[in-house]
Every structure is written in structure tokens, then in C-alpha cells.
Amino acid sequence: RGTAGFAHVSCLAEQAKILWAEVEENNLGAKARKERWARWYSCGLCEQQYHGVVDCALGWACWKTYVGRPETDVDRGMAMGVLANGLASADHHEDAVSVYEAELSMRQRLGACGSAFWASEYTMLTLYSNLARAYQRVERFDESLRMRRDVYSGFSKLYGEQHGDTLTVASNLANLLVDLGRIEEAKALLRKTTPVARRVLGDGHDITLKLRRAYAMALYRADGATLDDIREAVTTLEDAERIARRVLGGAHPVVAGGFEASLQEARAVLRARSA
Predict the structure, then answer these.
(1) How many alpha carbons fall within 13 Å on the CB side of residue 112?
(2) pTM
(3) Residue 170 CA to chain centroid, in angstroms?
(4) Which end of the chain has fewer CB atoms surrounding its CB within 10 Å, N or C?
(5) pLDDT tens digits for 164-214?
(6) Residue 42, beta-bridge partner list
(7) Alpha helices, DSSP H, located in 1-140
């Protein structure tokens, strides 16, 4: 409100609803459609995606706006995805799994009826990626890892290895591999993708930052980690954390829920090894 940096979620939802209604009324083009639909989940000024309870509240508002339409309505289908993403963002992971699985079933059913929109390769890869994330959060790790690998392979073939979407799913796969202790596989993937992300997306992009964090974690968590490996991990995390804090802000999940914890853990490992 005003200059205080706050906004009513209901106002954000109403703005998104109005902007999208103008798209439909004026039959606006693809660029306008993409930008205006994004108001359901991202800020129109800084373009950062909402997270946590705000993302979840907008997800519910989006779903309630379009749920009354026929199942074959495109907006209704997209709203289901916004709802699932919002639930996941607010850590309602079991609910997110249910919505993602319902969306997958719907898209497979409608796609089988001949509508290319519902089951396009990009759409399905994105949905599988979201479902893999939700499976990971509810500790269905085998299913998540299988999906993560398939999605990375799919985006690599669809867009090439330098595309932003490919690098995004590479980051997701790498972080899961690190969490599961598959360190050497994670390192191999990160050595290939991190330099590409820094060149293509820039050091301040959240995907680049996530890749650098994953690489640092792989360094200090490896069974055979040397003292130099651990020092490199700490240095990498310190540098990337400063960038993340400047670009994203200290309250962003990448900073507060990611870098701070990893840096604390890496420093503890370094102290123990240096003692």
C-alpha cells in the first residue's frame, strides 16, 4: 500500500483477473497472454515469482475464478496448475501432489481426444517437472528421480542444453542428486551446466545461484572431500550468497532457506576438518 511495499492479495488477484479478461476480450497475442497470465504468480514490476502464503492465496484465487468453466476450457486448465504451484510454494505438498496428479490425468485424457494443447511436449514436461518436485517433498524419491532425469533429457532434446528451461530442470535434478547422496553424478551434471548458466543467464539469475549452491554442497558432502574442496565450497557459497541477497533479498527462499543453511553447514565441516 502506498510507498510501504505492501499489497492486498485480493487486489493482486483482481488485477490479474482484469488483465486476463482484457486478453480474452481483445484477442491479444501470445506475448501479451504470457505476460498477463503471469500476474497470477509473479510481480508485474520486478517480475520475481511470489512465494509462500502469497503464492498459495493467489493460486486459490485463480482457481476459484475459473473453476466454474467446462473442463475443456484452457483457462481452467492453466488455473489448476497455478493452484498446485501455490500449494507447493506454501509447503502443502500432499495437496500439491493430488492437484498435479489430477491435472496430469486431465491433460492425458483430453490430449487423447485430439487436442494438441492439452498434451503438448512442453506442457507435459513442465507438469512432470512440477510433479517430480512434489514427489520429492513427500519423500517419494524413486519416482521423483526417474521423472527428473526424464524431464532433463526431454528439455535437452526439445530446446538444447543452453536454454533457460533446460538449465532450470538441470538445477532441479542436481539438487535432488545431492540430497540423495549421488555426489559424483551430481558433480558431472553441475560441471557441465553451471558454466553455461553463468554465461547464458548471468551470475545474478536464481537458477545460476541454485546450480552454484548445489555444486558447493556436492563438494563438501563428498566422502572423499579434500580440505581444498571444502574451502572452495565455502568460498563459492559466500560469493553466491552475497549475490543472492543483493538480487533476491534476504527473505527470499533461495537465501533464507537455501544459502544460509548451506553456508552454515559448509563452515561447520571446514572447522571440523581444520581442527
Answers:
(1) 5
(2) 0.82
(3) 11
(4) C
(5) 999 999 999 999 999 999 999 999 999 999 999 999 999 999 999 999 999
(6) 49
(7) 9-26, 30-37, 52-66, 74-89, 93-112, 121-137
